[in-house]
Design brief:
about 425 residues, 18-stranded antiparallel β-barrel, two-stranded antiparallel ribbon, 3 helices, globular, mainly beta
Length: about 425
C-alpha cells in the first residue's frame, strides 16, 4: 500500500546515522557481545533430518556447514546448506565493525520484534533476503542534544534483492528501524519497509529517493510500503520478572501516519522452577483488517499489494507473521532448563483465512485448528542433539504442512 511517513521519523534515524560519533567507545558489555561472535577457530557441522514444513517453520532438512572468519575488524561468516541437490547460502555474510558501527552484505536473517517468537514486519518465517546493511548501536545514552533523551539507541537500514521468480522480477526490499530505551523499563521502536523497483518500475537512484520520500506515486514509481511501531515494558515493581510487549504495523496511510493495522500483543513471565530458569509467554496476533469508512483496506489487506502481485513474500513465504493475512493466533510458549536439557514447548490456537479468500497463501478456505510442539536440546561434549515432536491438525497448501504428527532430529558439532 502507499504511505507517507512523517519527517521526524527520518530525522531521528538520520541523526543517529550521520553524527560524528567516533569518540564514543563501546561499553564492556557491548565488547563482550561482539567478541563472543569471533570464535574463528571453530567449524560447525549440522545435520537436520526428517523435518517437514509447517505453518511455523520452513523445511530445513539437509547438511549445514558454517565457519566464521575474522581479520581484525572484518568478519565473514560462511554458511552452506545442502538440500536435495541444491546448496543454499542463507546465513552467509561479510561485515566490517568499528566501535559502534557495522557495515555488511550478505544473506543475514532479521527478526524485528519485541517478541522472542514472531514478528509482524520481519521474521524468520521466510528465507533471509540478500542485502547490504548499515547499523549503529550503543547501550548507553549519547551526550548529544536531543538524542540523549532517547537513552540507548540502535539504528539500522538495509536494501535487499528479492528472488527473481515472482510477480515483479527484480523487486527490492528496503528497511529502516530506530530503537531506543528512554527509561530502564521501556524499549520503543519505529520501523518502515518498502518493496520497490523491479520490472516495469523505476529501479534507479532517483526511484530509490522517491521511495524514501514517500511521494510521487505513479505507475512508474509505485511501491509497497509498511510501517509501524513496537513497545516492550518491564516494570520495576514486579522485580522485572514480567514483560509486556506489543507491535503494530499499517498497510495504508491516514493523516500522514500508518493505518489499517495488524496487531501483536504478549505477556512474558520469568521465574525459576526447581532452581532452573523458566520463561512463560502468552501471545496473540491478529492480521485481520477492517474496511474504513472511506472504503479502504478490509479483508486481504495485510501482506498484499496490487502492483507487487506476489505480496510481502520471499520465496513464497510471508516475511512477517507466519499466519499471513486475515488470520488470528493465540499462543503459549514455555522455555525451561532441567537436568541438562533445554526444553521448549509451544501450543497455538489458529483461525486462518477468516474471510474465505481463495487466493490465501496458506488455505483457500477458512481453517481453524491447533498446533503443538516440544523441542528438547541436549549438549553432549562437542555435540548438540535436538529432537522436535510437532502436531498440526490443519491440512494446508503445499509447503505449509499437513494434518498429523511429525518428528525431526538435528545434530550439530563444532570442531
Amino acid at each position: 500500500m502507499n504511505m507517507f511517513f512523517p519527517k521526524p521519523f527520518y530525522l531521528s534515524l538520520l541523526l543517529a546515522l550521520i553524527l560524528n560519533l567516533s569518540a564514543v567507545k563501546l561499553s564492556a558489555s557491548e565488547l563482550q557481545k561482539e567478541q563472543s561472535l569471533s570464535s574463528a577457530n571453530e567449524v560447525t557441522l549440522q545435520l537436520n533430518s526428517g523435518d517437514s514444513p509447517s505453518i511455523w517453520r520452513r523445511d530445513d532438512s539437509g547438511v549445514k556447514l558454517q565457519k566464521l572468519f575474522t581479520v581484525e575488524d572484518l568478519y565473514a561468516n560462511l554458511s552452506a546448506t545442502a538440500t536435495d541437490g541444491d546448496i543454499m547460502w542463507d546465513g552467509s555474510y561479510i561485515e566490517y565493525r568499528s566501535q559502534n558501527w557495522l557495515f555488511g552484505a550478505g544473506k543475514k536473517g532479521r527478526h524485528w520484534s519485541p517478541s522472542r517468537y514472531n514478528s509482524l514486519i520481519l521474521s524468520n518465517n521466510a528465507r533471509p533476503v540478500p542485502s547490504v546493511y548499515l547499523r549503529y548501536r550503543t547501550d548507553f545514552a549519547l551526550d548529544v542534544p536531543l538524542l540523549k533523551y532517547f537513552g540507548p539507541i540502535e539504528a539500522e537500514t538495509f536494501n535487499g534483492q528479492l528472488e527473481q521468480a515472482r510477480g515483479v522480477p527484480g523487486a527490492m526490499l528496503f528497511g529502516a528501524r530506530f530503537k531506543f530505551s528512554p527509561t530502564r523499563d521501556l524499549d520503543l521502536g519505529l520501523f518502515r519497509t518498502a518493496q520497490w523497483g523491479g520490472q516495469n518500475f523505476n529501479s534507479s537512484p532517483n526511484g530509490f529517493l522517491k521511495m524514501l520520500s514517500g511521494e510521487n506515486h505513479s505507475d512508474e514509481f509505485d511501491y509497497n510500503q509498511l510501517g509501524g511501531f513496537s513497545a516492550s515494558y518491564t516494570p520495576s515493581f514486579s522485580d522485572r520478572s514480567y514483560r509486556f510487549y506489543l507491535q503494530g504495523y499499517g498497510e495504508d496511510e491516514s493523516g500522514g501516519l500508518p493505518s489499517c493495522y495488524s496487531k501483536l500483543f504478549g505477556i512474558e513471565k520469568e521465574a525459576r522452577l526447581q532452581g532452573r530458569p523458566l520463561i512463560i509467554t502468552i501471545e496473540a496476533a491478529d492480521t485481520t483488517v477492517d474496511r474504513t469508512e472511506g472504503g479502504y483496506c478490509g479483508p486481504n489487506t495485510a501482506y498484499r499489494n496490487g502492483h507487487y502481485q506476489s505480496g510481502y513474500t520471499h520465496h513464497g513465504r510471508v516475511m512477517g507473521h507466519s499466519i499471513d493475512t486475515e488470520s488470528k493466533a493465540l499462543s503459549l510458549y514455555v522455555k525451561h532448563e532441567v537436568s541438562g536439557l533445554n526444553i521448549d514447548l509451544a501450543a497455538s490456537k489458529i483461525d486462518l483465512n477468516r474471510d474465505n479468500l481463495p487466493s490465501h497463501r496458506l488455505s483457500s478456505t477458512r481453517k481453524k485448528g491447533t498446533t503443538a510442539e516440544i523441542s528438547i536440546t541436549k549438549p553432549l561434549d562437542q555435540i548438540v542433539l535436538n529432537t522436535r515432536l510437532a502436531y498440526q491438525d490443519l491440512d494446508l497448501k503445499n509447503g505449509f504442512g499437513t494434518k498429523g504428527l511429525s518428528i525431526s532430529f538435528s545434530l550439530s558439532s563444532s570442531f
